[in-house]
Amino acid sequence: MRHPSIFGLALLFSFSVTSSSSFPQTPFSSKRYSLLLLQSSSISSPKATPSDLLSLLGPTPHSKTVNPVVARQLKSCLKFMVPFSPTLDAEPPRHRKLGRAELTGPNRRYDNDMIWWPPEPVLELARLAVDSGGDPAAIHRLLDPTIIPVPDVEGSNEEKCQLTRTPYGRRFISEELNMYMQFLFELIVDRGPSVGFDVALNRFDLFHGHLFLSFDTGRLGILFHAREYPAYDKRVFPYNMGFCQRGSNVTYDDSMNLRNILWLAPLPDKSSKSWVAPGVLVVLDARPDGIIYRDLIPDYVQIARTIYEDDLGEVAVDVNILNVGCQSQNYQLFIC
Ligand SMILES: *[C@@H]1O[C@H](CO)[C@@H](O)[C@H](O)[C@H]1NC(C)=O
Question: Is 150 in contact with 203 (CB distance < 8 Å)?
């Protein structure tokens, strides 16, 4: 689903032809394609951009820069899994140290705090995003070079399905960072029902997110994609998505609207050691009558409701949590 459908390409082609020589004949690019559509569609109502979305989820001085009409419409499509508190003036608590029990134990406390002000290694990651000028290589340097082959995931091998970008993954050197990644997935599952979204950690539904650095806003985040492989259905979802879709038990329905989940790390101040906004965990509702669907989802993936990570920033790595257990569940992290 990463490339324009045949229909998308045909439409683009007709645009290219009718606009004759005004565009150079470069390879089809989805960016250009959506630009053309933007130009050709209504110019009366202001369009939301990914940067508007990130600004709106930032400190008040940033959210004020967003066109008020766009801001209002965007807000109506935000379903917070952790209360949004942009005016929270508390600084991150110093030296919060977390063990596995606090992050992934059965009786986790302070879950909201853990999003607003994550543990030190996560704050360092966010700071690095700004200090490096949004350079993905800065993130790559935090990875342990050990390569871990991705084993079978819930019968994926039998279907010749490779879920990850590469057949191997890595982990962060910081064990606390690894635990935090796992914590995010688990919190999404825990909080899903509070926004009307039942999501499960498995190879058809939620198993990955894309870690990105937004140069414009200085924000580091992860765009999670749940409901990754809905089952083929002649009537409601007649799309063949390849090997990984086979055997899917994800039903295509209105819950697809909620498949894009955004985590943002706290936002560091560019010129001091302080922080200007706490972290965020929010579902981006892509219901068809909303502005996210209209402006942030490329036309050729409207059916899948996919917001593209590349539109939010420079993607550094994919974060995968995969159930590699045979008899019982065993979730492991693979950074690819
Ligand atoms: C759906 O499939 C996944 C992967 O095989 C499995 O882990 C999960 O339990 C299934 N869910 C249901 C509700 O059957």
Answer: no
- Centre of ligand 1 from the C-alpha of residue 189, in Å: 14
Mutate to test the pocket of ligand 1, among 152, 161, 206, 249 (most ligand atoms within 8 A of CB): 249
pLDDT digits (tens, 9 = 90+) for 303-316: 999 999 999 999 99
Strand-pair partners of 257: none
Per-residue pLDDT at 9 = 36
- The helix/strand/coil state of 58 is coil
Tokens of 336: 């690819």
Q: Please give the span between the terminal C-alpha atoms of the chain, in angstroms, as a whole number.
A: 19
Q: Cα(215)–Cα(64) distance, rounded to whole angstroms?
A: 19
Looking at residue 320, its amino acid is N
Find out whether the beta carbon of 154 lies less than 6 Å from any atom of ligand 1. yes
Between β-strands 260-264 and 280-284, what pairing exists: parallel, antiparallel or unpaired?
antiparallel
State the pairing for strand pair 219-225/208-214: antiparallel
Two structure tokens written together for 31: 């960016």
Q: Which residues of 85-119 are buried (b: 16+ CB within 10 A; e: fewer)?
A: ebebeeebeeebebeeebbbeeeeeebbbbbbbbb
Residue ranges per structural domain of the chain = 1-44, 75-335
Q: What is the DSSP letter of 154?
A: T
DSSP, res 230: B
Task: Note the pLDDT tens digit of each residue in 271-310.
Answer: 999 999 999 999 999 999 999 999 999 998 999 999 999 9
Q: DSSP character for 90?
A: P
pLDDT band with cut points at 50, 70 and 90 for residue 105: low
Structure tokens at 39: 């130009």
**Rg from Cα positions in the chain:** 20
**Total-model pTM:** 0.86
Task: Give the nearest ligand 1 atom to 155 CA.
Answer: 5
Annotate 195-206 with b (16+ C-beta within 10 A) or e (fewer): bebebebbbbbb
Rounded Cα gap, residues 249 and 278, in angstroms? 36
Q: Are 258 and 226 in contact (CB under 8 A)?
A: yes
